[in-house]
Every structure is written in structure tokens, then in C-alpha cells.
Write a structure and sequence with these properties.
The complex is a heterodimer of chains A (320) and B (466).
Chain A (H helix, E strand, L loop, with lengths): L28 E6 L5 E4 H5 L4 E8 L10 E10 H8 L5 E12 L8 E8 H4 L5 E6 L2 E2 L9 E3 L12 E8 L6 H5 L6 E5 L4 E5 L6 E6 L4 E3 L2 E10 L5 E7 L7 E2 L1 E2 L9 E9 L2 E11 L25 E5 L1
Parallel strand pairs in A: 1-10, 14-21
Antiparallel strand pairs in A: 1-2, 3-4, 4-7, 5-6, 5-10, 7-8, 7-9, 11-12, 13-15, 15-19, 16-17, 16-20, 18-19, 20-21
Chain B lengths: L2 H15 L2 H8 L17 H20 L3 H14 L4 H13 L3 H14 L5 H12 L3 H14 L4 H13 L3 H13 L4 H14 L2 H12 L6 H17 L3 H14 L4 H13 L3 H14 L4 H13 L3 H14 L4 H13 L3 H14 L6 H10 L6 H14 L4 H14 L2 H14 L4 H13 L3 H19 L1
Helix pairs in contact in B: 2-5, 3-4, 3-5, 4-5, 5-6, 5-7, 6-7, 7-8, 9-10, 10-11, 11-12, 11-13, 12-13, 13-14, 14-15, 15-16, 15-17, 16-17, 17-18, 17-19, 18-19, 19-20, 20-21, 21-22, 21-23, 22-23, 23-24, 23-25, 24-25, 25-26
Classes of the chains: A mainly beta (320), B mainly alpha (466).
């Protein structure tokens, strides 16, 4: 069980494309280069002695199932990516940033083994909350979660928050043939919608509004009584404003109680006082955020990809 | 004592510890002195220098005698006489910090640094001052400046690492320890680095650095022992128990004079409920480190866990004679009494605990539970304990469950009802509360409700067993 709102470091979710690289504190370097005036590199000691900030933020895998465990929330500390980029003086036509990890492998059978990488708009990197993070819940990052430093883009799905970060390369608009394209990473993390005559493909980025019931768990049997149902809700498009609970699979909804939210990009704990009378229940939670986005009741049938699975998931529970 | 005074005391202690006066003499020379004309009119240049030295000596003496305000006045006079003396401004900054005026101290130290940028002392003191001001960004900026200007001064980085670690700024302490290690062949700096890596969760790095020391036979055994201990702790954090045991044993073999390796190993055995193994380790510790009260307490508790009650109790009672404010000892004594069915002794031990630590967590629930086992139980006193417990921890289901049980025993069923209902509300999955509630309904003649509760007990037990 998660006490409070922070996921313990040993429970921080792990999703990798390649195996964990061997990185040590004393040989780790981060290089900032590409279309910049002053490329430079630095080590861990330099990083942690730069001005840093702490942000409580949720991190979710883009392919996290509706009831999936590939989501965590905690207090991250890192150096704002904006200040690291500014020191390198990006060219005026800089448009994107390629982030490269120390892990590498082959994404396509016929492709070359290349490092994990992602390309992110430079404006996203320049947001105050975008960090090169080196601490999680006041400890160094767990090794499998990107030790000693990773990118962190609160509000965005986890694939952009490149782990074991070792290179940041500033790109011009339209610049191609990067390791991102050559590795085949550009074919992943895309939203694919089937239209009548074609497929519409767009890049997945912002975390969609979502909630989960932590208790009761699916299939639980309970004696009748008063219970505090609880769970979490989160969104990358705004602060959570409303959480509703249904006991009948989504026909009727009652308001849940939201606890305080440390940051709009963190998850919020919710509770619901449930007077459970004997019967069989199909419990559902549904969140809505300050941008007006609300969790869909079902998966969009036009979607062909396996990302953004934020529809309301039924939890079955019997009370006697 | 207010905050400023605490920090001032800390500074005074720090000044004494790091022998600021000695360092002043070593670090700052009377160089390029320009003399002021408005402080001591009528004095010749030579007389001003003589007067400056006199003021400097008096100020140092005032610092050593913990009179920082006087030292500030003396240094102010000194820098007025010789306004470009780095030594004077450094002394003034140290004295102002000791007097608790951190903002002025920072300015004086910055001035000293500008005047004599070839020594790291003003920057080191600025780190201390900025810590006291809570200005971590400026502290980090000082550290970056130290790294830029004194990249190979291992001693300076080691001093900074120690200072930052003592203030729980572990990650920046680690950064300084890394910088120190780059230019130092001192194995102690490798152990310091490993300790910090272990502290901040970089366990694999800690193991790698610690084992490099532990496996080098040319290094003194004591240092290798400390390194083995760090490796053991890091392995424990990684849940690699076998290696943890191996290296903690290695630490004991290499340097048996440190109680922490024995304690860590015993703790590890406790987690695995290997109490006799823990006892054996701690007995070994008692022979090697006989004065350690921590070992005595741990051994007493483990003897009781391993059911060697007589020996454990004797050890704990001996400890309490010397250190009566040791709550864990009372808890272990109470534990022994409960296991041996001596409820009166259990209550006595907990009463003693309450006397010494009235705010000990859950003490009133522990007392109530122990008193319930006494024959005959004194129900009114137990209810009094539970009333205090309910005030202290109003959401503890045990408080209401025990209260309900007592009302049942007293035949006060109407009063038992709300207590048990509250207990169920706070912990709805505990069958024993439903069982007591069923008994209450039975006694009140509400058989339908009693039957419902008994069914819930059955249902819950079957659900739990699945």
C-alpha cells in the first residue's frame, strides 16, 4: 500500500527498451552539444552543485494499462534543463532537442544497435518544470530508474524522460537522420486512429486524465459496513478538479473527496465514504481536470495503438 | 535558547574545532598593507601596523574565550586601520558569524576572498555562513567556485565534504568527496566517499569503492574493516543478505573494536528472525566492546527474543541502573514478562516506561492490554488508560476494541456496542471485532443481528484465508 502520495523508490515503475547500462558516478558525464555556441560536458559533482529545484510529479508509461502499475508519483530533484541549455547558447533556429541515454540496443531486426533516444520540442525543455533529475524522494535515483541522472518532463508520458541521460543535442527544425530516426524510435509512441479511408498518426506526449481505485481491489469480498474507498487521480493537461465514483458500472455517479494536490503535475489522493450494503458491485472512478478533460468511460474504438489507456476500469467487489 | 544563539554556539564550537586562529595565521599574511588615515590619526604607519597586530591578537584571544561580540569590535578597528587586510576581513567575518550576524559575515568573507583569492579559507567559511542562512543556492555557488579555483585541493574538498555531511547535505557532500578523491591517494577519502554513496542510495558505487579498499592488503586493517562494513550495509540495502552477512563478518574480523558492525549484523539476523545468531554476534561484541550500552541493549533484547529470559532481564536491568531513560529496555522487559505469563511484571515495566517517557507512542494501549491480562483485571483503571489513549490517538481501532471487550466483560453491553462499532469502522476487516459485536447482540437478545455478525466473521475468515 502507498502511504501518503509518494511511491517508494523500490516501487517506482520500470519499463525499458534495452538492458540497464553500467554507469558509475565517477565516470558519468552529460554532454550538451548540437546547434549551440558553447558545447560542454560535466560530471555528477558538477550537476548536483548547480541550482536545483524539487517538483512532486507523476510519471506514467504511455502504454500503462487502465489498471496498470506503470505509474508512480514522487518528489524529484534536478537541475532545470532550461539553465543547462542556456549555458550552451542554442542557435536561434533551434527547434528540437535530442535526448540520448546510455542504454542501447536494436529496436528493428534489420536496424543497427543504437542508444535509446527521444526528440522533444525545445520549448518543452525550456519549461521551468523540465529537469535533469538526480534525486527521487531525497535519495539518488534507483539504478534501474536512470541513475545517476535522467530527463524529467512532468505532465508528459515517461518515454521522453530519458533514463541514464548522457547527451543532449540541440537540433534545427526539420533536422533528420538522427539516431532517433535511424533506430526506429520515431515509429513508436504514436497515436494511430483509423479514419474511413486512412490512418491518422500523431505523436503521444501529454499524460491524459486518469484515475485508479487502490482499494478495494478487484475481486475482493467484504462484510457489509462503512468503508473508505481510496485511490489516485492525475493528469498532464491540468490540475484534478473532480473525482466521481460509481458502484453500478457507470450508470450513477457520486462525488469523491479530493485531498490536497502538491503540484498540478502530481497525482492527488482521493477517498470516498462507502456504505457497502450486501450485493455485487462494479466500482469505477472517473476524474476530470481543470482543462475540462474527463476520463472516457470506454476506449475510443478508432484507436489502433496501445497508448493512452485512460478509460474507466471496472472493479468487481461483493459484499455480504 | 533561540535559533541565533544555537547557530552562534555551533560556530563557536566549529571555530574551536577547526582552530580558526591557527588557520588565520597560516592562511593570511600581512601583504600589501595600505593604511587608513581616519581611524587613528596621529599614528605613524609603523605604529598602525603594530596596533593592527595587537588588535588581531586580542580578537583571536576573544574568539578563543567565546566572546565573539568583542572580537567583532576589535576586528572592526583592525580593518579600519588596515582596510585592505584580507586577514582582518577574514577574522571579522568569522567573528561576525560566531556572533550570529551571518549577513555581515558573508560580506566580510567576500571582501577577504577578493583581497586574497589564492586561499580557499574565505570560501570555506562562506559555505558555513550560507548554510546558517539557509541559502543553499549561494552555498552551491561557493562550492562551484571552490571547484573552479581549487580543483586539486583535496584537503579543502574533504573538509567541505565532512561539513556538508554533518549538516545532512549528503548529495553535495558526495560531490565534494568525489572531488577530493580525484587528487588524493588517501584511502580514508575512498571510505568517506563510499559512506556517502551508501547514505544517498548509490549502493553499487558504494560497494565498488568500499571493496577496492577492503581487498587491498596494503591498507591498514582498521580502514579495511570500515570499508567492509560499508559494503555490508550497502548489500543489505540491496537485499543481498548473503553478501551483507559476509562483509559485516569481514568488518568484524578486520576491526572488532567498532560496535556498529556487530549491531548491523545482529539487526540483519533479527530481520530474518535468527535471534540466536544475533545473540551470538552481540555476545562477541560484548567481549570486544564491553562499554557499549547500545550493544548491551541489543543483546538484552535479543536474549529475550531467543527466550533466554533470565540472562536478558539481568542485562537490561543492569543497563537501566546506568541509563534509566532507555525506553527500548522497558519494552523488552515487558515483552519478556508477557511471554512468560507474568502480567504484573509487564504492567510494572510499562509503568516505569511511562514514568520516564510519558509520551512514548501507544504507551496507554500497551498498558491497557497488559492490565487486561492481570488477575483479576482492574477494569476501571484499564478504562482510564484507554480514555487517555483515545485522546492521544483517536483513530486507533485497538483503543475501541479493547474498550468494547471490557464493557462486554463487565456486562455493560449497551456501552460495548458503540465502542465495537467504532473499532469496525476504523478497521473493517478484523474478524475479532465482529465476533465481540455478535456476542453483544446475543446478550441484548438481538439474535438476528448476532447471527449476521457471526456470518460476517465466517465470511471474513474464509475471504482472508483465500
Amino acid at each position: 500500500m502507498i502511504e501518503g502520495t509518494a511511491t517508494a523508490p523500490n516501487l517506482l515503475f520500470v519499463r525499458d527498451h534495452f538492458s540497464e547500462p553500467e554507469v558509475w558516478l565517477d565516470n558519468w558525464k552529460l554532454r550538451i552539444e548540437g546547434h549551440v555556441e558553447r558545447p560542454y560536458e560535466f560530471g555528477f559533482a558538477d550537476l548536483v552543485e548547480m541550482p536545483s529545484r524539487k517538483i512532486e510529479a507523476v510519471l506514467e508509461c504511455a502504454g500503462n494499462a487502465a489498471n496498470g502499475s506503470a505509474v508512480s508519483n514522487g518528489l524529484w530533484e534536478g537541475v532545470p534543463m532550461a539553465s543547462l541549455l542556456e549555458a550552451a547558447r542554442p542557435a536561434s533556429d533551434a527547434a528540437h532537442v535530442l535526448l540520448e541515454g546510455a542504454d542501447s540496443g536494436r529496436l528493428m531486426e534489420d536496424g543497427p544497435p543504437l542508444p535509446y533516444s527521444q526528440v522533444v520540442p525545445i520549448e518543452t525543455c525550456q519549461e521551468a518544470s523540465s529537469l535533469v533529475a538526480f534525486k527521487y524522494n531525497d535519495l539518488t535515483l534507483p539504478r534501474r530508474n536512470g541513475f545517476p541522472a535522467r530527463a524529467l518532463f512532468p505532465g508528459c508520458y515517461g518515454m521522453n524522460s530519458v533514463k541514464w541521460l548522457r547527451r543532449i543535442a540541440v537540433l534545427r527544425a526539420g533536422e533528420q537522420d538522427t539516431i532517433f530516426d535511424r533506430s526506429g524510435m520515431n515509429r513508436l509512441y504514436n497515436r494511430v486512429r483509423s479514419r474511413s479511408d486512412r490512418e491518422q498518426i500523431t505523436r503521444v506526449s501529454t499524460i491524459q486524465v486518469k484515475s485508479a481505485i487502490a482499494w478495494p481491489t478487484d475481486g475482493l469480498k467484504l462484510p457489509a459496513g462503512h468503508y473508505a474507498m481510496w485511490g489516485f487521480a492525475w493528469s498532464g493537461t491540468g490540475a484534478i478538479r473532480r473525482l466521481s465514483i460509481s458502484g453500478d458500472g457507470g450508470k450513477q455517479w457520486n462525488p469523491g473527496k479530493l485531498q490536497s494536490q502538491a503540484d498540478p503535475r502530481s497525482w492527488v489522493r482521493w477517498t470516498y465514504e462507502w456504505n457497502a450494503r450486501p450485493g455485487d458491485y462494479v466500482l469505477m472512478s472517473r476524474a476530470a481536470d481543470s482543462s475540462g478533460s474527463e476520463q472516457p468511460l470506454t476506449r475510443d474504438p478508432a484507436r489502433k495503438d496501445g497508448y493512452e489507456l485512460n478509460y474507466c476500469l471496472p472493479i468487481h467487489c461483493s459484499v455480504r | 535558547m533561540d535559533m541565533n544563539l544555537i547557530t552562534a554556539c555551533r560556530f563557536t564550537a566549529a571555530c574551536a574545532k577547526f582552530r580558526i586562529a591557527t588557520m588565520l595565521a597560516a592562511a593570511f599574511v600581512f601583504c600589501t598593507i595600505s593604511l587608513a588615515t581616519d581611524c587613528a590619526t596621529g599614528l605613524s604607519d609603523q605604529e598602525k601596523i603594530t596596533r593592527f597586530k595587537q588588535l588581531d591578537g586580542e580578537a583571536e584571544s576573544a574568539m578563543q574565550q567565546h566572546r565573539p561580540a568583542e572580537a567583532v569590535r576589535l576586528y572592526q578597528d583592525a580593518v579600519c586601520l588596515v582596510p585592505n587586510s584580507a586577514r582582518g576581513y577574514y577574522g571579522l567575518g568569522v567573528a561576525e558569524a560566531a556572533a550570529g550576524d551571518f549577513l555581515k559575515a558573508r560580506e566580510s568573507l567576500r571582501t577577504a576572498d577578493r583581497m586574497q583569492p589564492t586561499t580557499g579559507m574565505p570560501l570555506l567559511m562562506q559555505v558555513r555562513v550560507n548554510f546558517s542562512l539557509g541559502d543553499i543556492d549561494t552555498l552551491k555557488s561557493n562550492l562551484r567556485e571552490v571547484a573552479d579555483r581549487f580543483p586539486h585541493d583535496a584537503q579543502l574538498h574533504t573538509t567541505l565534504a565532512r561539513f556538508l555531511a554533518e549538516r545532512n547535505l549528503f548529495v553535495v557532500a558526495l560531490a565534494e568527496a568525489m572531488r577530493a578523491r580525484q587528487d588524493s591517494s588517501d584511502w580514508n577519502s575512498s571510505v568517506q566517499l563510499a559512506v556517502l554513496e551508501n547514505t544517498i542510495g548509490a549502493y553499487e558505487d558504494a560497494i565498488r569503492n568500499a571493496l577496492a579498499v577492503e581487498q587491498n592488503p596494503a591498507i591498514p586493517q582498521q580502514v579495511r574493516g570500515a570499508a567492509a562494513g560499508v559494503a555490508g550495509l550497502s548489500y543489505e540495502s540491496l537485499h543481498q543478505t548473503q553478501q551483507a552477512v559476509q562483509y559485516l563478518n569481514e568488518a568484524i574480523e578486520l576491526d572488532g573494536s567498532q560496535d556498529n558492525s556487530y549491531l548491523a549484523l545482529a539487526d540483519l539476523f533479527d530481520q530474518e528472525q535468527r535471534y540466536q545468531d544475533a545473540v551470538n554476534v552481540l555476545k562477541q561484541a560484548r567481549t570486544r566492546v564491553p562499554d557499549s550500552s547500545t550493544v548491551q541493549l541489543a543483546l538484552g533484547a535479543d536474549l529475550i527474543r531467543a527466550e533466554h529470559y533470565k540472562e536478558g532481564l539481568a542485562l537490561l536491568r543492569e543497563l537501566l541502573q546506568q541509563a534509566p531513560d532507555t525506553p527500548e529496555a522497558y519494552i523488552s522487559i515487558a515483552d519478556a514478562a508477557r511471554k512468560t505469563g507474568d502480567a504484573a511484571q509487564e504492567v510494572l515495566a510499562l509503568n516505569e516506561l511511562e514514568r520516564h517517557k510519558p509520551d512514548y507512542p501507544m504507551i496507554h494501549v500497551l498498558l491497557a492490554r497488559a492490565m487486561l491480562n492481570q488477575q483479576p483485571p482492574e477494569y476501571s483503571k484499564i478504562l482510564d488508560e484507554l480514555s487517555i489513549a483515545a485522546r492521544n490517538t483517536p483513530n486507533d481501532p485497538d483503543v475501541y476494541f479493547l474498550r468494547g471487550k471490557i464493557y462486554v466483560a463487565l456486562g455493560r453491553y449497551e456501552q460495548a456496542l458503540p465502542a465495537l462499532q467504532r473499532s469496525i469502522e476504523l478497521r473493517p476487516t478484523e474478524p475479532s471485532a465482529y465476533y465481540q459485536l455478535a456476542r453483544v447482540y446475543q446478550k441484548l437478545g438481538r439474535t438476528d443481528l448476532a447471527k449476521q455478525q457471526f456470518e460476517r466473521v465466517k465470511y471474513l475468515e474464509s475471504a482472508n484465508s483465500k
